[in-house]
Amino acid sequence: MDYVPITEEDKKIMLERIGVQSINDLVNSFRPALSNGRLDIPPPLTELDLFQHMKNLSNRNKILRYFVGAGSYNHYIPSALSHLVLRGEFLTSYTPYQAEISQGTLQAIYEFQSFICLLTGMDVANASLYDGASALAEAALMAASYTGRKQISVGNNINPQYFEVLKTYCDGADLEITRNQANEYTACVLAQNPDFYGNVENLFYISEQTHKAGALFVTCVVEPTSLAIIEPPGNYGADIVVGEGQSFGIPVNFGGPYLGFMAVRDYLLKKMPGRISGMTTDSAGNKGFVLTLQAREQHIRRERATSNITTNVALNALAATVYLALMGRTGLIRVAKLSYGMTHLLQRKLSVLGFQTLNSLPFYNEFLIKTPTSSKTIMSNLAKRGICGGLDLGEDRLLICCTEMNTVQDIDDFVSIASHDVAAIEE
Amino acid sequence: MEKLLFEIPEGCVTEHVPHTTSSSFLDGSEICSNNDGDLQLEIPDNIRRKHLPLPNLSEIDVVRHFTKLSRVNFGIDVGLYPLGSCTMKYNPKVNEDIARLEAFASLHPSSPEDCLQGTLQLMYELEKYLKVLTGMDDFSLQAAAGSQSELMGVMITKAYYKEKNNGKNRTKIIIPDSAHGTNPATAAMCKFETISIPTDPRGNMNLDKFKQSLNSDIALLMLTNPNTLGLFEEDIVQISQLAHANGTLMYCDGANMNAFLGITRPNDQGFDMIHLNLHKTFSTPHGGGGPGAGVLGVKAFLADYLPVPRVRRRLLQQRRQQPNRLRPHQKNNSAQENNYNYLYHYYYFLDFAKRKSIGKVRCFYGSFGMLVRAYSYIRAYGSNIRRVSENAVLNANYLLSLLKDVYELPYDRRCAHEFVLSCRKFGQRSALDIAKRLLDYGVHSPTIYFPLTIPEALMIEPTETESRESLDMFASALRSIAKELKEKPDLVKAAPHTTPIRRLDEVAAARKPNLRWTPSCDQSTPPDKYVSTGGSGGTSNNHHHASNSRDNNI
Q1: A183: containing domain
Q2: CATH assignment at residue A160
Q3: CB–CB of B118/B391 below 8 Å?
């Protein structure tokens, strides 16, 4: 199967017009030619064969009942969402360079920016970054460029994958990573809320100490449904808020594509990476939207740009905007309360069984437990019953997560299987 | 224009998820609810949100809002989109259905490995096909976009020299003046200095200038091939030899790979690394500006530097082959590839061993949803994938033949998959005017003012999925605009005339930025005041939403 509409007849006419005998005459300057022209790729497939092949391949995966989050959260996606996001006018457009015929994308981005500001309590947001982890790294680079300092301080338990990405970017940019410091060399202090273990903290004190040292305070939100019921970072003094928007209507998708976001205080606007949509007027005085403040970007500034980012994740930003519009504050608060409630229900039931909770602070929808037997045994017994019991952090540590997708029945099954494991040790 | 979401009158929200007081929740959870039957939140007051200023809208209003927005947006599904360097080809619909198969889309990245076999196999095989097409020895699928692959490539360069020269880095990167802006921006992110090389009279990178610039400080040459002028770099083999003799690595910006599939391989041209944009060459939808996916291919000596984890497989014990269920016409080809049973002979796994890895550049394993579409696209064309590039080159050269007598062709050569014309004879800002006027003809405009080296540039990439009729229509539009510019220039300068809005005031947008909607009641009291722990907390000044629902009172 192919998607080329040119017929043999067309081809003849076109070659004649160009003034060559064959297509080979057009491509023979591309050297060195592929030896013997043969490709070790399977033969073409019709749509039916392709679909069946892909379906068979996908069926080699197994979907479980997930009690795992750790950067990827299994939330309900309203049906209307994909119908809207799949509209070809959105799906098959590109970066809105021609504003007059891209008002749909531009207005949706403007609305996305507004939602992110409302949720985080910040002044301005960009059109999206790749994912939460690279957004955190971009925040570090931005803070270093703004302050002219070279140390990035990690202030609490951030997701280890986020830390790895941060380290990669900092190595590239010759920045040093420190822990829990704020002094005259510190460009910024980064803290995740809720942290990797689900702990929720008022970070006002850290933010105050950070500002005293003349550094920027960066908050990272990996599970943004928490923002429905937890104090927004803008209220405890964040200068930059970054995070992962996957929870807002984007499938877990084996880890991507996701939705990085960034929101900042007004004074950092010119240092912010990525696209920004702004409202303005047209020559007839009507309101409209354009990509704005482009003088920050690589296609204008080249080596002096704030970042190299160009393509971001606009369609996922649209999905998040549609999600937040469909859920409303009522729906989002329900999602947060259910996630919170289910998590605490499971935690209490496991406590009764003798699983010790290691969280010292209030937690949102993830918690860390010490398992009475090896976490590996518990995970594998749960997996046999179709449950993914959490993120196995080794030995006797398990990081468990619930969302509104986990039913009370799921929780009872989890507890019942775990109780067999506990009983097995007692014997 | 459609009003903002936030200006739509509030309505009844569709109940997408249960209320926390619903019976399904309460059945087993008496410990979590209070006397009112509502969930008891134990989140202390100093971290509890007091007000969530989001609108409550009815589903029909939301659906209509976004449907209206879509109708003032232009995509490939609407018409020709010859945006040079972006490869706006048709995005097969079947790939959207495939990417949404539940067993792909709902797979959590932290699932146990034996639940990931289909996904890992897909990634493994995609790497294999990309190796075949580029000649590279190894691939990483992790990057979210081409520019992030570039970042990986430059980081690998840095790590490579650090190790090779006992910690002493080479500090400079050579980039031709026609390169994409991402190349120098990426180099700067890793603190490299960039050296720009001019273009020669045939549209190639100037070989003499390149030779003069080579010295022991040059870490990398970042080259786009075919270059951004849509021309094959004729000296590429010699350039690679010179670079390698100088100990300099060769990086290919593979944004233009749509010209090369099955025709020539970057490896054979001497490149050590190449990134491919799956959303360009392999037709994953551009989505209004992403998500894309970048993949980075490297030669064996650089493989240990790639991000982790890598997808690998091991042979399991051979299983008996069951009867082949293929359609008869496929039997003569390498039939086993398609046989379901054959696929079970390997166990796929993630290899987290770090070796010399630069580390991770993003969470988890890459933009998997995009990898599915690209894989599926490659399998559809299969061994005939050369047809993509042949027809992309055919379409571009045909379109060029229809235009070069009216618009100036700066380098008079056959083009690859795209070409650049100059409109300078029509005066300053004419490229912008022409682009805007094209919108009235129902097509998207080409890329304009890029590459920076061509004055009043139009960069045109029709792609292989346009019919001859569509190309003829585009050519006649551009020809009649050239005529309009002579006969009634004001018509063109005031364009577009038929779009939902007219030309927008970009200067005002940048000078007085309006970048978000702000709730009216918050305007009197800015929402961003810092509040102390345990204090009065949050913005309590919003009353207009308060009567709506118990859920509103957090």
Answers
A1: 79-321
A2: 3.40.640.10
A3: no
Chain B from 111 to 140: CB within 8 A of any A CB: 111-112, 114-119, 121-122, 129, 132-133
- Interface residue A345 vs chain B (CB under 8 A): yes
AA letter at B23: S
> Mind listing the pLDDT tens digit for each residue in B324-339?
555 555 544 444 444 4
Per the structure, the count of domains in chain A is: 2
Does any CB of chain A come closer than 8 Å to the CB of residue B325? no
CATH assignment at residue B244:
3.40.640.10
Question: Any chain A CB within 8 A of the CB of B37?
Answer: no
Interface of B with A in 292-321 (CB under 8 A): 292-293, 307
**Predicted-assembly ipTM surpassing the 0.85 threshold:** yes
Can you give the residue range of the structural domain that contains B410? Answer: 386-493
A250 touches chain B (CB under 8 A): no
Interchain contact, B57 vs A325, CB within 8 Å? yes
End residue of a domain, out of A321, A351, A372: A321
Half-sphere exposure in the Cβ direction for B504 (13 Å, CA): 26
A316 shares a domain with A277: yes
DSSP secondary-structure letter at B459?
Answer: E
**B372 touches B98 (CB < 8 A):** yes
Say whether both A238 and A376 belong to one domain: no
Same-domain status, B229 and B296? yes
Statement: residue B388 has pLDDT above 70: yes
Q: Is B486 touching A (CB cutoff 8 A)?
A: no
Q: What is the pLDDT of residues B177-230, one digit of tens each?
A: 999 999 999 999 999 999 999 999 999 999 999 999 999 999 999 999 999 999
Instruction: Say which DSSP state B48 is in.
Output: B
- B266 contacts in A (CB within 8 Å)? none
pTM equals 0.93
Q: Which residues pair with A199 in a beta bridge?
A: A363
Give how many domains chain B has, as a whole number. Answer: 3
Inspect the interface and report whether the beta carbons of B376 and A313 lie closer than 8 Å: no
Put simply, the chain B residues between 188 and 207 with a CB less than 8 A from any chain A CB are: 188-191, 194
In a domain, B429, yes or no: yes
Q: Per residue in A19-40, pLDDT tens?
A: 999 999 999 999 999 877 689 9
Cα separation, B172 vs B210, in Å, equals 13
Residues in A touching B550 (Cβ below 8 Å) = none
User: Containing H/E element for A281?
Assistant: strand A277-281
| A271 within some domain | yes
Cβ–Cβ gap B1/A287 under 8 Å: yes
CA distances from A192 to A238, A261, A359, B190, B366 (A): 11, 14, 15, 26, 22
Which helix (H) or strand (E) is A154 found in, with range? strand A151-154
Shared domain for A345 and A284, answered yes or no, is no
Q: What is the mean pLDDT of residues A174-187?
A: 96
Residues A300 and A403 reside in one and the same domain = no
Q: How many residues does chain A have?
A: 427
Two tokens at B408? 């100036």
Query: Does one domain contain both A225 and A334?
Result: no
pLDDT digits (tens, 9 = 90+) for B456-510: 999 999 999 999 999 999 999 999 999 999 999 999 999 999 999 999 999 999 9
- Put simply, whether B163 touches A (Cβ < 8 Å) is no
Interior/surface letters A94-124, b for 16+ CB within 10 angstroms, e for the rest: bbbbbbbbbbbbbbbbbbbbbbbbbbbbbbb
Sign of CA dihedral B137, B142, B147, B151: negative
Q: Within an 8 Å CB–CB cutoff, is residue A280 touching chain B?
A: yes
Whether B349 contacts chain A with CB within 8 A = no
Say yes or no for a CB contact (<8 Å) between B360 and A32.
Answer: no
Are residues A86 and B96, on separate chains, in Cβ contact within 8 Å? yes
Distance CA A137, CA B331 (A): 51
Q: Of the residues A287, A302, A321, which one is the last residue of a structural domain?
A: A321
